[in-house]
Design brief:
2 helices, four-stranded antiparallel β-sheet, globular, mainly beta, Tachylectin-2, Chain A, 21 strands
Length: 302
């Protein structure tokens, strides 16, 4: 998107409220700080082994089609597409585990979409089944032992997908990888260090979307995840992170150069909003936002 387009753009936030079956929430903002509710629970899919909806990631392609992926199973992720961000079709479960290639997963968490020329990358985190230790008590799932690593696949048509491959390994438990292209040959990987003594967002740098990545540095405090980098204009960035402890939701760090960051900004939301949790932001023009609002109005009309 050109500089002039960025300066006149608006933003759509696709999030979920933390509930496994709360569905897709949709918000709009003109500055990335104050968000108004467009709809909550607009889409409630039930696919995969878990039949849940978490960690939505949305990308809008050059033809104006919204593509959505989300967490919902052990062996794959959910997928759907939409022309208006309201009615989602082509719903399916994309299997990326491959036991025959020693990729027998216990989970597929937080898939992320990154366009890379003619292909699209989808990156997620998984623990191999052989490395998973279940919780001592079945109802205390959070006490299980995981050892997540990052994997990816790619597609050119959203119908067929390349074989799953390892993405980048920092050498420890890691989730929530998000790739951001800052400039030609300058890519940032934002991820969560999932070790018990960490639980924070880290940035690493690479020269391509597939890395390798280096120079890791911690950007946020404990109990943060789900980073999103938004470029609002020249020298104007916001790095969002989900402060998930006590269901706080998203905060944002401002930056002019991605070298230094200002103090955290509390996002503003209206009374209709639910908790703004782990999601993605799509930059659109005002005409697209108007089309989304018309689609919502038609959907709610008697």
């Amino acid at each position: 998107m050109s500089t002039s387009a960025l300066l006149s753009a608006v933003y759509l936030l696709f999030a979920f409220p933390g509930s496994d079956r709360g569905g897709l929430d949709l918000y709009a903002s003109e500055d990335g700080i104050a968000w108004r509710t467009l709809a909550t629970g607009v889409y409630r899919p039930a696919l995969g082994e878990w039949r849940i909806f978490r960690d939505p990631c949305v990308h809008r392609d050059e033809e104006g089609v919204f593509h959505l992926v989300w967490t919902t199973g052990e062996s794959g992720f959910g997928y759907a597409r939409s022309r208006d961000a309201v009615t989602w079709t082509d719903e399916r479960f994309v299997v990326v585990a491959d036991p025959a290639r020693d990729l027998d997963f216990k989970n597929v968490w937080a898939p992320f979409i990154h366009p890379d020329g003619e292909r699209t990358l989808i990156v997620w985190s998984s623990t191999l089944r052989r490395e998973y230790l279940p919780p001592p008590k079945k109802d205390e799932w959070w006490t299980a032992t995981w050892n997540h690593r990052l994997y990816y696949t790619s597609t050119t048509d959203w119908s067929t997908f390349a074989p799953t491959r390892p993405f980048w390994d920092p050498g420890h438990n890691v989730i929530d990888a998000k790739i951001a292209r800052v400039a030609k040959g300058d890519y940032r990987l934002y991820y969560k260090d999932e070790r018990k003594e960490a639980k924070h967002v880290v940035e690493a740098r690479g020269t391509s979307p597939l890395g390798p990545f280096a120079q890791p540095r911690v950007l946020t405090g404990m109990f943060t995840e789900g980073a999103i980098l938004l470029r609002r204009g020249p020298g104007d960035y916001l790095l969002y992170y989900d402060l998930y402890k006590d269901r706080h939701g998203y905060m944002a760090l401002p930056s002019e150069d991605l070298e230094t960051f200002g103090p955290p900004i509390q996002l503003q939301k209206d009374e209709a909003a639910r908790v703004l949790r782990h999601g993605s932001i799509v930059t659109v023009d005002r005409e697209t936002l108007a089309e989304v609002e018309r689609a919502l109005a038609e959907r709610s009309a008697p």
